[in-house]
Amino acid sequence: MTEKLRPYLVHVIKPLIIGGLIYICFRSKTLRFFDWIDKIGFSHSVNKIRALVYPCKEVLPKWFINSLPDGLWVYSFTSFFLIIWKDQINEAKYWLLIPLLFGCLIEVAQAMKIFEGTYDPIDLFFGVFAFIISVNINKFKNEKKIKID
């Protein structure tokens, strides 16, 4: 794998895959995500995976199942912008607001019953925390030129 692709794999793709797997394995099948799975013809495979790992759901904390995927999405999206504009952070600062605000506004819209879903302040915390972690990891990597991928 080329060194240019490594940051995307580690900080963008892997978090999205982990969040997607949490959804596939443990989230309610009434979510729109499962309509998409059905439309692309993966329902049978997903049902097999869910049956295999479902017993683990009882021992996992609720924040892991319900809030971590949101945080991983914000982390991934923020990291994507930071990796693209690593040498031009001033130009990226407004773009960086997109994942932060989008993650937070969805929760606020859910609280106000404008957007479908259940408001959870823990989701809000995970979104803000993931944003801060992504910014700091990428800032540290760029300032110190230390490879931590």
Please tell me about this protein's structure:
The chain is mainly alpha-helical. It contains eight helices and no strands. The chain has helices spanning about 5-25, 30-40, 45-55, 60-65, 70-85, 90, 95-110, 120-145. Helix 5 packs antiparallel against helix 7 (about 95-110) and helix 7 runs antiparallel to helix 8 (about 120-145). The relative contact order is 0.13. The mean pLDDT is about 90.
Could you give a quick summary of the protein structure above?
70% of the residues lie in helices and 0% in strands. With 149 residues, it is mainly alpha-helical. α1 (6-26) runs antiparallel to α5.
Helices and strands in order, then pairings?
Layout: H1 6-26, H2 32-39, H3 43-53, H4 62-66, H5 68-84, H6 89-92, H7 97-111, H8 121-144
Helix pairs in contact: 1-5, 5-7, 5-8, 7-8
Query: Helices and strands, in N-to-C order?
Result: HHHHHHHH
Mean pLDDT: 88
Shape: globular
- Radius of gyration, whole Å: 17 Å
Structural class computed from helices and strand pairing: mainly alpha
The helix fraction, in percent, is over 70%
| Uncertain ranges | none
Strand content: under 5%
Number of strands: 0
N→C terminal distance: 13 Å
Number of helices: 8
- Biggest pleated-sheet summary: none
